[in-house]
Amino acid sequence: MVSTDKNQSSEVVFILLGFSDYPDLQVPLFLLFLTIYAVAVVGNVGMITIIQISPKLQTPMYFFLKNLSFVDFCCSTTVTPKLIENLIVEDRSVSIKGCITQFFFATVCVMTEMAMLAVMAYDRLVAICYPLLYSVAMSPKVCSVLVTVAYSWGIIFSLIFTYSILVLTFCETKIIDNFICEYLVFLSASCSDKHFSEIILFIFVNLSLYCTLIIILSSYLFIFVTILKMHAGRGRYKAFSTCASHLTAVTIFYGTILFLYCIPNSKNTGLVVRIGSAFYTVMIPMLNPLIYSLRNKDVKETFRKLMDLKTISQ
Fold it and tell me: Which of 124, 216, 231, 264 is such that its CA lies 20 to 30 A from the CA of 256?
């Protein structure tokens, strides 16, 4: 009986509807998502390159930002090409193995981004609240450990979620009203008992989400208290400006996830879920490099110098 279940699962095909129920918008959506993907790739690779080659940007804050850009690049590359492909092809099917593979890597990226945003909040806490200890508290070794923890966090949680999917059985071809292989896709498509997987989802999603969110909120609570104690207005502005980009990225990322998955809302189905999923897996990887570059004087200055050197060389 067990071998039969495995055989059935191996033959299952998912059909990702994506945005196919809007046939008149297929070409505009193709061009839109292609542009978003191009901007995401150029923006994140550009951010990594600028930070890597600029001596002025060899600080803990930019080290974490470089890793965040790498995670965003991986997330965008895991999700967006398949979305773009499904907008122009008739066959929108994907094998169960392909779906699980996409889910694994996308989950690694999302969970790692959660942890990385928490690490970046801690970095800002130390920089603003304990500036004299910053060079010691955020030494290169400590930064490497924190980044390793963030990646390990993403991989471990993704392995747990993937295992809870592998124990499910899938019996037939399923039409999925989404463009990405999310956890709820597997739960809705399964023809076996889903109780274990639902418990895993509830426990570990909440654990990851609220642990990282508590770190971020606690860090900013101490940061705001420290800023309020500052007497110089210029010091307050400088301290706040160093957090503005990160706070913007956190608000967009967590706001989208909380809206989709943690706030009970019967209307969060169909198009709303697809748009929300597209926002945090496709749009945010494009927005992050823009948020950090447009508000960052050092990044813009380094970019201008690179452009000047390119112009001179020509």
Answer: 124
Q: What is the pLDDT of residue 36?
A: 93
Cβ atoms of residues 280 and 288 within 8 Å: no
Contact (CB, 8 A) for 184 and 197: no
User: First CA to last CA across the chain, in angstroms?
Assistant: 70
Q: Can you give the chain as a three-state secondary structure string?
A: CHHHHHHHHHHCEEEECCCCCCHHHHHHHHHHHHHHHHHHHHHHHHHHHHHHHCHHHCCHHHHHHHHHHHHHHHHHHHHHHHHHHHCCCCCCEEEHHHHHHHHHHHHHHHHHHHHHHHHHHHHHHHHHHCHHHHHHHCCHHHHHHHHHHHHHHHHHHHHHHHHHHHCCCCCCCEEECCCCCCHHHHHHHCCCCCHHHHHHHHHHHHHHHHHHHHHHHHHHHHHHHHHHHCCCHHHHHHHHHHHHHHHHHHHHHHHHHHHHHHCCCCCCCCHHHHHHHHHHHHHHHHHHHHHHHHCCHHHHHHHHHHHHHHHHHC
Question: How distant is the alpha carbon of residue 278 from its chain centre?
Answer: 11
Write out residues in the chain with pLDDT < 70, as ranges.
1-11, 232-235, 261-270, 294-296, 298, 300, 303, 305-314
In tens, the pLDDT along 80-139 reads 998 888 888 877 888 888 889 999 999 999 999 999 999 999 999 999 889 889 989 999
